[in-house]
């Protein structure tokens, strides 16, 4: 039986590793949770941005993915000239 903290830590490390690999090669896609960690925002705001059309997504079956291009476009479109 594994300890919940250990599982959470491993899952967090896995997300961080995936984010680093995606950022290095400059393409790919993130889950909504990964996008939130990348952008430093919460899930509620991410889904509001998706609903408003500000953040473009791709659906693969039941999964919702944000391409790195869409993530960067969203960042550059923020008020204040981010990026």
What would you say this structure looks like, in words?
The chain is of the alpha+beta class and 83 residues long. The chain has one domain (4-76): Multidrug-efflux Transporter Regulator, Chain: A, Domain 2 (Orthogonal Bundle). It has four helices and three strands, in the order H-E-H-H-E-E-H. The chain has a three-stranded antiparallel sheet with strand order 1-3-2. Strand 2 (58-60) and strand 3 form a beta hairpin. The model is unreliable at 1-8 (pLDDT under 50).
Structural class estimated from helices and strands: alpha+beta
**Spatial sequence of strands, sheet with the most strands:** 1-3-2
Stated plainly, the CATH topology is called: Multidrug-efflux Transporter Regulator, Chain: A, Domain 2
The helix content is: 55-70%
Mean pLDDT, all residues: 79
Distance between the termini: 44 Å
Order of helices and strands: HEHHEEH
CATH class: Mainly Alpha
